[in-house]
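Input chain follows. Return structure tokens only.
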Amino acid sequence: MQRVNKVAKILIAEDEKALNDAYVMILKRAGHEVKSALDGSEALKITKNYEPDVILLDLRMPEIGGIDFLKAYNLKEKHPKVKVIIFSNLDMQKEIDQAFALGASKYMLKSWASPSELVRMIDAELDK
């Protein structure tokens, strides 16, 4: 089933500013409402007043990384409808497994996704 003109609320938590800015631009251009954070603590602050449909979450960030963000956010108990796509440039199987155990729904290598693939992946998660 394909979404028709649904605007998703998306939170990007990515510490590489250039990538963060690129993801914001791509997703806004696709018609989504987007907020972004450069680390996990900033992302947690945003979620106090913003309930996203999707979170794009880098696993390695300063201050609070992706795993600690997921623990503090309590995805499974408090936000079960939020889809979390984790991403990293590194092969981090232990952290990836932890993220899935904490409720993440998908994993993506940062270098793998083109802008159109990123939008398709988010749309597919929203359609689940």
